[in-house]
Design goal:
Elements: H1 3-16, H2 20-33, H3 39-45, H4 51-64, H5 69-75, H6 81-94, H7 100-109, H8 113-123, H9 133-150, H10 156-170, H11 182-185, H12 190-203, H13 207-236
Helix pairs in contact: 1-2, 2-4, 3-4, 4-6, 6-8, 7-8, 8-10, 9-10, 10-12, 10-13, 12-13
């Protein structure tokens, strides 16, 4: 059986489900298949009055990845609020930069704390390698400004999510999602992140948020230290004569 035949069987099972439990099982099986033909049906499941099925559909759309993004964006303004909230979660989990505008809007202004939290997390997992080099600095500046604002959200779970994304934005690395982080592209802006984290550590009322801030600082600071001092170590070490090393 090829993927197309399997998709049709699984889609039919979703359409013919006659109870909440059967619908949940059918959506879970369709999501687990990871077939692109399932995308419209998984998106439709976001609007069912079945939270379990919606969670399964979100997981399936995230697993399918980039192919899910455009269909979600094309339909998101026509959703009822519940389905739109699930769609934001799916887009946040995928991290495609085409969803940037949706994630920015949701993170800053959605009335649901869970949607703001998901969108804030999504801003920290954007795939920067998708951004044209000439637009990278501008887009990262937008994301930074949004995260600095979101880090003052009245709900602690949203602030917590903002901290995780600020950490990701501050750090550079070898994987595609962090290799173009702000410490490399806009080093003069990196201090805004460290300053905001320190302010949160000093003033945030929630212990969980302050603990997460400390963790972020511990990850960011060694990298900054390495960037500052590594060139000097390279100059000092190589050609020094051996001095015996026996003096104690």
């Amino acid at each position: 059986m090829n993927n197309s035949d399997l998709a049709q069987i699984l889609i039919r099972a979703v359409e013919e489900a006659d109870s909440s439990d059967r619908l949940l099982d059918a959506v879970q099986e369709l999501a687990a298949a990871g077939i692109e033909e399932a995308i419209p049906t998984l998106i439709a499941a976001l609007g069912y009055n079945n939270p379990g099925a919606a969670v399964a559909a979100v997981d399936g759309l995230i697993a399918i990845g980039e192919a899910s993004v455009q269909p979600l964006l094309e339909l998101i303004d026509n959703y009822n609020y519940g389905a739109r909230a699930w769609a934001v979660r799916a887009l946040a989990g995928i991290g495609d930069v085409r969803a940037l505008g949706t994630l920015l809007e949701a993170a800053k202004s959605d009335f649901s704390l869970s949607v703001r939290r998901a969108a804030a997390r999504g801003l920290g997992t954007l795939r920067w390698y998708q951004v044209p080099p000439e637009k990278l600095e501008s887009i990262q500046t937008q994301v930074l400004e949004a995260l600095l604002l979101i880090s003052q959200d009245p709900e602690w779970v949203v602030r917590y999510a903002a901290v995780t994304s600020l950490e990701t934005l501050a750090m550079s690395g070898d994987n595609p999602q962090s290799g173009n982080a702000i410490s490399a592209t806009l080093p003069e802006q990196a201090s805004r992140i460290t300053n905001q984290l320190q302010q949160m550590l000093d003033t945030d009322v929630d212990l969980g948020v302050r603990t997460r801030v400390k963790f972020a600082q511990q990850k960011i600071q060694p990298q900054q230290h390495q960037q500052t001092f590594a060139p000097k170590r390279k100059v000092v070490d190589p050609e020094l004569p051996y001095r015996g090393g026996s003096r104690r």
